[in-house]
Amino acid sequence: xxxxxxxxxxxxxxxxxxxxxxxxxxxxxxxxxxxxxxxxxxxxxxxxxxxxxxxxxxxxxxxxxxxxxxxxxxxxxxxxxxxxxxxxxxxxxxxxxxxxxxxxxxxxxxxxxxxxxxxxxxxxxxxxxxxxxxxxxxxxxxxxxxxxxxxxxxxxxxxxxxxxxxxxxxxxxxxxxxxxxxxxxxxxxxxxxxxxxxxxxxxxxxxxxxxxxxxxxxxxxxxxxxxxxxxxxxxxxxxxxxxxxxxxxxxxxxxxxxxxxxxxxxxxxxxxxxxxxxxxxxxxxxxxxxxxxxxxxxxxxxxxxxxxxxxxxxxxxxxxxxxxxxxxxxxxxxxxxxxxxxxxxxxxxxxxxxxxxxxxxxxxxxxxxxxxxxxxxxxxxxxxxxxxxxxxxxxxxxxxxxxxxxxxxxxxxxxxxxxxxxxxxxxxxxxxxxxxxxxxxxxxxxxxxxxxxxxxxxxxxxxxxxxxxxxxxxxxxxxxxxxxxxxxxxxxxxxxxxxxxxxxxxxxxxxxxxxxxxxxxxxxxxxxxxxxxxxxxxxxxxxxxxxxxxxxxxxxxxxxxxxxxxxxxxxxxxxxxxxxxxxxxxxxxxxxxxxxxxxxxxxxxxxxxxxxxxxxxxxxxxxxxxxxxxxxxxxxxxxxxxxxxxxxxxxxxxxxxxxxxxxxxxxxxxxxxxxxxxxxxxxxxxxxxxxxxxxxxxxxxxxxxxxxxxxxxxxxxxxxxxxxxxxxxxxxxxxxxxxxxxxxxxxxxxxxxxxxxxxxxxxxxxxxxxxxxxxxxxxxxxxxxxxxxxxxxxxxxxxxxxxxxxxxxxxxxxxxxxxxxxxxxxxxxxxxxxxxxxxxx
Length: 841
What we know:
Layout: H1 6-52, H2 60-67, E1 75-77, E2 84-87, E3 92-94, H3 104-114, H4 126-137, H5 149-158, H6 165-181, H7 184-194, E4 196-199, E5 205-207, H8 209-217, H9 227-234, H10 254-273, H11 279-287, H12 301-304, H13 306-324, H14 339-351, E6 355-358, H15 362-373, E7 389-396, E8 401-406, H16 431-442, E9 450-453, E10 458-460, E11 464-466, E12 477-480, H17 481-486, H18 490-501, H19 503-512, H20 539-547, E13 554-556, E14 561-565, E15 571-574, E16 579-581, H21 585-600, H22 609-612, E17 622-627, E18 633-639, E19 644-650, H23 665-680, E20 696-702, H24 711-716, E21 719-725, H25 772-775, E22 828-829
Helix pairs in contact: 3-9, 3-10, 5-6, 5-7, 9-10, 10-11, 13-14, 15-23, 16-18, 16-19, 16-21, 18-19
């Protein structure tokens, strides 16, 4: 071996050893690095697992359902189905929008500012997240959240809003999962519909871009927004409570608006930097006066129409609850055991985007509310009595639709709806529906039929007996049914109620008119026809009952809501007419003709309306007054051929009585409402006169007997001509041996056969309109108007509340009790050939 080559060999050997050692070290370092990475990964995975261990793995279907689930604002509309009454009670205002209805300017503003890599990432922006982690670790002054739009939707839909590492990790994992199952457009649409945008001009919390546009700029079409407005809106979701031009009451907030404008300039800068705006567009947006375009302050609907909104909410909740629970009846739904059901239904109604369409005519309703709000129409406030209250309901009796209401004077004073929820004694307003209508229908009396106004003795459970009295403390003997009703005399109504119709039949008849408040104990209320009921009646039900008269005996259930649709426009409830014939057209016409006299006769209890109702004579009206003990309640139930309006006046506590001026309050308010209705809504009053059906004729009878006139009545001129149902025209001549003043008083009884003729409904073929002079019998004039004292003062107490009677009547003289014979018409029946005073065999 060459000794000169040994150093080179040794040198190579050393390098070989060094390489092996280095390789071994690299392997070990690599192995340690892998182990370190795995260990760190394990630690991170363990940490992440610990953070999300309670987070469920959501399925595709669940993610879809939750993302598309929104608490939508429900709205109430007037009867034109276009004009909103307002939004239902919910502090959130949320209205959905499709992406196709969102202009590109809003999308550009939003993405440029909130997530410039929205269309590139898979739900999580790694650069943004790293930047956010660095800012947090270094505690930098400016810290960005790093959340993508997808993460923000995930947080809004599935997670709480607390700022913790746990929530952030869950948010990222959910965002990744959402991006797997949903397209970018669906996620962007969810963002636009779900994110908060601060307060609107009405004080509601705005959710979604459409509600924000309407609530902040009063712009419903997003395409009409200026680029400056779009940038303003796009900047709000970052800090909606800070960037808000309005406070929680809808008042302008200068500080919040200035901060929102600072944020708007940031958005415009980002749009310029990302190429979404040109320099000229950017400068134009900066010059745009955003403040001048802010929506004007608006009162919340529960401040503008509080009574109507609450009543609509209450009735709609009942309707939906009944629809969802068909085993519960309408009478049962208001019972205490169903209170929770109603509350749950009401909450669902408020947050599910329902559209509730009412029957309320906005002009009619506004006029009625203004009349109620005007203190000049009422007595001054009393510290002892409180606020004089008023309630009224106007109904289209052909359909039962409620056109307008007065629910009370002041919502802040008393939130109860006096028109629908209160029950009070009806006074003499009960006489037509509990006595005269059923008596006319069965032929017990007719307008010219005689009823005995003489003393009657009634049994009393406590005193043994009591003697009802009239307002004037006198009895006037025989009088026609028309006169008795016209002057609201008590005893004739009592006689019909007790001895002819009978109490059970009377109350069954009243119930058939929709009155639901008649109680079992009222079966023993001998003076119930005068208004002495155990519970009373509501304005709504009594008005609907009177509406059957101008509607020719047909009852239509009163209703406030015509239809309800869900958020997609599907009809979930629609009112179905509940029409039924209760009595004949002939009876309805006779009753109307009698109630016209209540107003037209100078002695009628409604005579004030001749002057108070400005269209009197041009439009037929009829009605009945009602008064309770010491004027604790006053009523007027009046109608035209097209609408029925019922009015009640009194105080919250019935013991508080109305002032002298308040005695006629119901009539005066009735006239005020009708005057405004005729002026503003003339189309509601298409029919000027009541029509007469077939089967009604005018007949001249003796005013001494109510039957065909005999020799004495014809010679003395004691005759009366009036309308009769043809079925019940008298066929016998009455006995007239003695003058009226000497003749003993006997109760009147119609001459009808034991076996009644079966009723046959006759259609109203003859549509002849009856002029006023034909429909009202001639009555003598009275020159003076006397306010009479309360006619119930001396009535003994009974087991039921004290009945009521009419006031302000004029006692006729003996000569006034007779009616002149009008000229014979083509439909008048006379019997000149009868000359005997005795009936023929």
